[in-house]
Amino acid sequence: MSTFIYSLFLYCYRAGIFIASLFNKKARLWINGRKNWQTRLKQALGDHAAPVIWVHCASLGEFEQGRTILESLKKEYPGYKILLTFFSPSGYEIRKNYAQADWVFYLPLDTRHNARDFVNLVKPALTIFVKYEYWHHLLHALKEKGNPVLLISALFRENAIFFRSYGSFHRSMLRCFTHIFVQDAESRERLTGIVPSGQVTVAGDTRFDRVAQIASGFEPIPAIAAFVHQHPFVIVAGSTWPDDEKHLASYVKLNSTNSILIIAPHEVNDRHIKEIKVKFPQALLFSRLKEIHAPKARILIIDNIGMLSRLYYYADITYIGGGFNKSGIHNTLEAAVFGKPVLFGPNYQKFSEARALIKKRGAISYTDENQLIKSIHQLETNTDLRQELGANAGRFVGDHTGATHIIMDYIRENLR
Description:
α3 (about 35-45) packs parallel to α6 and α12 packs across α17 (about 370-380). By secondary structure, this protein is of the alpha/beta class. It has helices at about 5-20, 25-30, 35-45, 60-75, 90-95, 110-120, 135-145, 170-175, 185-190, 205-215, 220-230, 240-255, 270-280, 310, 335, 350-360, 370-380, 385-400, 405-415, and strands at about 50-55, 80-85, 105, 125-130, 150-155, 180, 200, 235-240, 260-265, 285, 300, 315-320, 340-345, 365. The chain contains 19 helices and 14 strands.
């Protein structure tokens, strides 16, 4: 891919987003959030003299992945300002008021002009990209300035474009990073010949540190504690999609015990909530939980965002959605850190932590409704098995923390 083709693609992408914004709220947020960004960023930065650390995340998942680094930087470098940027509205809209960052902005589209203006305005003393996001013009503009540019929690799969014969354009972007912190030895090996070995470190995945941080600082949810009180068996299903909900509904129809099911869907909008209510007609919405004294409902639908990582604490077993989607399952570590058995659908192979959880007997994957019902019944009736799988899951997370420490050590040695 040439620079011309790359730039042409970006302009076509923006045109497509603009058209979509006429009828799609998320696309409209993407467009509106970038209007007059130069003026707004310049006004926000003002005349401060403090050096800037810039942290970029594609979306909310990457933000959570890089959060331990960002908060460590905020604590250890009080004389620095922190700029946090997002590419996706799903990240920006939820974290636009994040207190640990001095400024939160959308990342402008990666044109040559935008990249030059952005870097000249921000003048970052340190730049950190979390896991993904390779922007050609921005990375080259940063490289010209000579300050450290880090990629953290990176994962490079064998079939990635960097390793194809036609991937030279993308390989050139990897050479713009001062240092790359990868999740596993395989990723480091795949970068051999592209990036000097001294510029690549196997640090692990900072998500392990983040979920461990959440667990150690757990904040109770009184309404949930009251809802599950005295019930012998609680299932928390997080980040669910329609296929997940369909399978869980089949379990509910065949299950006549006093078990509790809490569903926290991936998409929290009126349409999807209504669809879930059709599948679970007796379900209660969390937003109405406080209005009802001693609710008799066995099924609770979480119709807000931000509670999921704490919900897993109340589970006996957990279910992670997305296993029947092309993109695959969502975050399994948020559940495993609390020492809970984890269930999910068959599309998990590209997630190393999910594969490892199965290998360590901390998780179970299923392919159809009958297998799901059988697995839940087995875990419900066999307390020893449930405790064994939960302990294995918790131990797996504990054994893989420490990436934040490795990355921060490097920053301490190299941040001027």
